[in-house]
Automatic annotation (TrEMBL):
Binds 1 divalent metal cation per subunit. Catalyzes the reversible epimerization of D-ribulose 5-phosphate to D-xylulose 5-phosphate. One of its GO terms (molecular function) is D-ribulose-phosphate 3-epimerase activity. Pfam families: Ribul_P_3_epim (PF00834). It comes from Bacteroides vicugnae. SUPFAM superfamilies: Ribulose-phoshate binding barrel. Substrate binds at S8, H66, G142, F143, G144, G145, D175, G176, G177. The active site is at D35 (proton acceptor), D175 (proton donor). This is Ribulose-phosphate 3-epimerase. Pathway: Carbohydrate degradation. It catalyses: D-ribulose 5-phosphate = D-xylulose 5-phosphate.
Length: 216
């Protein structure tokens, strides 16, 4: 099965954001990936809901919203109001993760959980049956354009084994340093969805790059 491709608009040209979103609309990408950063959980600030309302209005693809923030449960109504398909929260930011996952599902969105590079896959044992998707960060979150962390491929294999062992239906998504070379290895290891930022938006032909990633 072809991987789901989710271009990350964190790497888009914000001077021409509408143009870049229209490119994603035309492309073979399945989702639009949105990284929300608060400058607290991660050392950077991205964009807030006024910008995201504009993105939601323009996008014809489902929104894959990734909250790299503390207390993400406070913003469930705002993410729901965007019409988001997936609301993705960090394991490390949610001491009551099971409750947050329930709240996201009750709001009518697909709940997903993200783990940072230093967070072991084994910690998902007790939540893996309750989530729609797990996102493995293959760079340290907070900035685009970072170098791919090689151990991420093994983490995908470990997560695939956990999913199969528990009978979970969770998808595996990977974000950070994804390109044609790393993407091929991640898909081979069991990844279902690839988030691509610089690889897409810095390419001479972004639509062609999305097509190539889709064929991995």
């Amino acid at each position: 099965m072809k991987p789901i491709i989710a271009p990350s608009i964190l790497s888009a040209d914000f001077g021409y954001l509408a143009k870049d979103i229209e490119m994603v609309n035309r492309s073979e990408a399945e989702w639009v990936h949105i990284d929300i950063m608060d400058g607290v959980f991660v050392p950077n600030i991205s964009f807030g809901f006024p910008v995201l309302k504009y993105v939601a209005k323009l996008s014809r693809k489902p929104l894959d919203v990734h909250l790299m923030i503390v207390n993400p449960e406070k913003f469930i109504p705002e993410v729901k109001a965007l019409g988001a398909h997936t609301m993705n929260v960090h394991y490390e930011a949610c001491p009551h993760l099971h409750r947050v996952i329930q709240q996201i599902r009750e709001a009518g969105m697909q709940p997903a959980v993200t783990i940072n590079p230093a967070t072991p896959v084994a910690l998902l044992q007790d939540i893996i049956r309750d989530v729609y998707m797990v996102l493995i960060m293959s760079v340290n979150p907070g900035f685009g354009g970072q170098k791919f962390i090689e151990h991420s491929v093994e983490k995908v294999r470990e997560l695939r084994a956990l999913i199969e062992r528990t009978g979970s239906k969770a998808l595996i998504e990977v974000d950070g340093g994804v390109n044609l070379e790393t993407g091929a290895r991640l898909v081979e290891a069991g990844a279902d969805a690839l988030v691509a930022g610089n690889a897409v938006f810095a390419a001479p032909d972004p639509e062609a790059m999305i097509r190539q990633l889709h064929e991995l």
